[in-house]
Design goal:
Length: 404
């Protein structure tokens, strides 16, 4: 008996752990040392559990034996609420917080109760593919708006406005963006908010990298700029405190509650059905909310993420036929290849050629819903010297490279 996939899976893609990743893992099994620049998983590169979180969980394991509240542990939601208040979000209480197993799970909780078949959600391009994929799995359609590389990868506000239709239910903002690592200004956020206000559409603001912003810049939460609008803010501690495996994320609903009363009922249905998020991981949330030193130590000059970014930039500057916009935050960059110089017609072929020539695994731009074959994402998590060596090897590979 042949069991087929459902039709809804046809457009779903996960290139971060897709076919090329499988190929790279097969190479590793054959004893080939592959540098995995495909995924933003700090633990892979030696980032350890912060001591603040270790102390929070030790001796308290029994608190997580049973199911907790379907919204999340009370003290964890209180800590999240206070953190988001400190960022200027008004009128919120712990009851507005829903904790899930990472932003990946709460994104589905946020979208599923909102969307009907044929509805549309505006999603950035490039973007982390979670959003486009989840919209599709809900039976709706992602409509991609352009982030403009020539304008520091900022969203093209005119393009966003042109793509709003009667079917548009929401707009997704990823700030700092993945894969570009670019931080958005308050003025830009205000322009996007204006579109949402005029068209009465919901905003989803993915702020998972809000504590990993460099160069003295400050992250401004979208919801802090629009207390009059319903906004769903998504965040977590996977990246800021290097605990991706703890699967600890949340969504916060702000704005006038009368606008979201019916929508919240759907979220409660979803979270109740799941029973509760990982209770053991929730124990560390209050400690993570209070621990600013861990993320700050990584992004300040001398810190790992900061110095790794600088090492990448120094080497990329030496590569002919490659340009980039320096990231403001997160640990990603999205360089551009000269497609004429390298005769590139497929970014997936480029990524495969790079893997087999250099043993470096990267995700091509199409994995982030970027339509042209001219970009790829660099994950800047290995130590600076290892990254510098990888960039030099990539430069040597590109010297004379022509795609067949």
């Amino acid at each position: 008996m042949f069991i087929k996939r459902s039709d809804r899976m046809e457009t779903v893609h996960s290139d971060i752990r897709g076919p090329l990743f499988v190929e790279a893992m097969e190479m590793r099994e054959r004893g080939i040392d592959v540098l995995r620049l495909n995924t933003g998983n700090p633990a892979t590169f030696g980032f350890e559990l912060p001591e603040s979180l270790r102390k929070a969980i030790e001796g308290h394991e029994d608190l997580a034996v049973g199911y907790c509240d379907f919204k999340g542990m009370k003290n964890a939601r209180e800590a999240i609420c206070e953190y988001e208040k400190s960022k200027g979000i008004q009128g919120i209480t712990p009851d507005d917080v829903f904790i899930g197993n990472g932003v990946s799970e709460v994104a589905s909780f946020a979208l599923m109760p909102l969307l009907n078949p044929g509805d549309e959600v505006l999603v950035p391009s490039p973007s982390y593919s979670l959003w486009g994929n989840t919209v599709r799995l809900c039976g709706a359609n992602p409509v991609f708006y352009t982030c403009d590389e020539k304008a520091h990868w900022f969203p093209d506000v005119a393009d966003i406005r042109s793509k709003v239709t009667s079917k548009t239910k929401a707009i997704v903002i990823i700030n700092p963006n993945n894969p570009t690592g670019v931080l958005y200004t308050p003025d830009l956020l205000e322009e996007i908010i204006k579109i949402a206000r005029e068209n009465k559409i919901l905003i989803f603001s993915d702020e998972i990298y809000d504590r990993l912003v460099m160069d003295g810049k400050t992250h401004v939460s979208t919801a802090s700029l629009a207390p009059d609008l319903p906004i769903v803010t998504l965040n977590g501690i996977s990246k800021s405190h290097c605990v991706c495996g703890y699967r600890c994320g949340w969504m916060l609903i702000s704005g006038p509650k009368e606008y979201t009363e019916e929508y919240r009922k759907g979220i409660i249905q979803m979270t109740s059905l799941r029973l509760c998020a990982n209770a053991l991981a929730q124990i560390v949330i209050p400690a993570a909310m209070a621990d600013d030193e861990t993320p700050r130590s990584m992004i300040s000059p001398g810190g790992r993420i900061y110095e790794q970014r600088e090492a990448v930039c120094r080497e990329l500057d030496k590569i002919d036929g490659l340009t980039y916009v320096k990231n403001d935050g997160a640990f990603y960059m999205f360089p551009k290849l000269d497609v004429k110089k390298f005769n590139i017609t497929s970014d997936k072929v480029f990524a495969r050629d790079l893997l087999h020539a250099t043993n470096i695994l990267m995700v091509p731009g199409s994995g982030f819903d970027w339509a042209e074959p001219d970009h790829f994402r660099i994950v800047m998590l290995p130590k600076a010297e290892e990254l510098a060596d990888a960039m030099r090897r990539m430069g040597e590979f590109l010297d004379g490279y022509k795609q067949k």
